[in-house]
DNA sequence: CAAACCAAACTACCATACTAGTTATACTAG
DNA sequence: CTAGTATAACTAGTATGGTAGTTTGGTTTG
């Protein structure tokens, strides 16, 4: 797909985006040792922007930098996953409740377009794009509630959670249920059926828990 | 007090901590323009670690870096304050509820020590230390609930909120009420009176809202 | 054979020179 | 005197060389 060419902005941002994608999509496996120099050569840039990208990724806990020694791609920490999932559940239930009271036309348009696209991607098995649409679905809810910043922060807290979700999506494939939940939730929101919408959201966010053990068994070296 | 000398670790971390403190304690006012070179000279270090500290602070939205142009200390964004406060309220109510069910002896010891210290600092008007103790009080709750990572993340989301709190503490001074609430909350937690503890927490976190307008009027150029 | 040590080959960290883009200033044309 | 422009003095961004600490692998020693 050559997503490499499309990334704009500074060299640092380019390095950051590229590395982040490679880690999230497991093109670089958890536990792999990498170095500034190695990556810099690979990307044909100097060490400085790569180093800065490393630091940002370390902040997000996608990398573990050991001073004067080396840098490794972090393993998925299941305790962090659960903590992140817990918080996300609590927050997003509040968000849905808020959204029920204020879901303007522009958001309805975006949401319907999003859901339509989800079905297209599902029919074509485009997992990568489907993941992005799933993210966007939830983001729209946060924006409609005037809590865009909270979404951004949750994304950071939930990086390990998201890595697990992406891993699950790529291996498993019963998105139908997920998309169905999205549809129901949207209908309940525009009908302002607060309690039911909140309940669906709770179920929705607890789906991942179930398959956790299966994935851990299949890819033990990805986890910690 | 010379907090400068005590900071250990790498040069980057030193620069970061120092700058962060200066910004949080308003030794550098919001809106001030600073530059990597200027700060590097001031701290007698090279531009590299200062630059890296800048980037970290920009991530936290304490600095606004305008590429090829300049860097300014960000103003306190009151919309961010309110969003952060909202999230913190929702999360911390859940945390208190959790803590009621699991508050071990070691945490009780830390908590009682913390509260005792709060009273000492209040009697001696040590605002700075009192702020730190306030932070620690809440952090202990998160740790007792096994959600230390969440605390760390909330701290990031709430940097603007915290700047406001610190500003309030240093100018105003009715900590008695705050400390009183801390005491009550602790008692309710060890007695496992969940509903009441949650209620106190809600009141506690809504205190800041009240004085917001007063501060905005007094220091208009600090806000946006 | 095993353990201890020593040296070479890494690593991230820091300093510094250079580049490219922005801003302010001074000067010129109208 | 004003408006527009060229230029000089900034800025953050990037490249690169050198430093100090860590790891590794081979050698020596008990």
Automatic annotation (TrEMBL), chains A, B:
Instruction: List keywords of the entry alphabetically.
Output: DNA-binding, Transcription, Transcription regulation
Question: Which InterPro entries does the protein's record reference?
Answer: GntR_C, TF_FadR/GntR_C, Tscrpt_reg_HTH_GntR, WH-like_DNA-bd_sf, WH_DNA-bd_sf
Pfam families in the record, alphabetically?
FCD (PF07729), GntR (PF00392)
**UniProt domain HTH gntR-type: residue ranges:** 9-76
Q: Which PROSITE patterns match?
A: HTH_GNTR (PS50949)
SMART domains named among the record's database cross-references = FCD (SM00895), HTH_GNTR (SM00345)
**Record's protein name:** GntR family transcriptional regulator
Species for this entry: Paenibacillus cookii
> Which lineage is the organism of this entry classified under, starting from the top rank?
Bacteria, Bacillati, Bacillota, Bacilli, Bacillales
In the UniProt record, the gene name given for this protein reads kdgR
């Amino acid at each position: 797909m050559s997503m490499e060419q499309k990334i704009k902005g500074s060299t640092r941002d380019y390095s950051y985006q590229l590395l982040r994608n490679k880690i999230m999509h497991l093109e670089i496996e958890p536990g792999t040792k990498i170095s500034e120099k190695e990556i810099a050569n690979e990307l044909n840039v100097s060490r400085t922007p790569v180093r800065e990208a490393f630091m940002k990724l370390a902040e997000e806990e996608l990398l573990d930098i050991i001073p004067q020694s080396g840098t490794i791609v972090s393993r998925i920490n299941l305790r962090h996953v659960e903590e992140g999932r817990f918080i996300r559940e609590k927050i997003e239930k509040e968000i849905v409740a808020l959204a029920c009271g204020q879901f303007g036309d522009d958001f309805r348009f975006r949401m319907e377009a999003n859901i339509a696209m989800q079905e297209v991607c599902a029919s074509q098995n485009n997992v990568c794009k489907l993941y992005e649409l799933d993210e966007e679905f939830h983001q729209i809810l946060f924006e409609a509630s005037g809590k865009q910043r909270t979404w951004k922060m949750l994304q950071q807290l939930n990086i390990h959670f998201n890595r697990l979700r992406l891993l699950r999506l790529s291996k498993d494939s019963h998105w139908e249920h997920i998309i169905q939940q999205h549809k129901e939730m949207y209908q309940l929101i525009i009908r302002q059926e607060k309690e039911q919408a909140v309940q669906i959201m709770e179920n929705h966010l607890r789906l991942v828990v179930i398959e956790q053990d299966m994935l851990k068994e299949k890819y033990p070296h990805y986890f910690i």
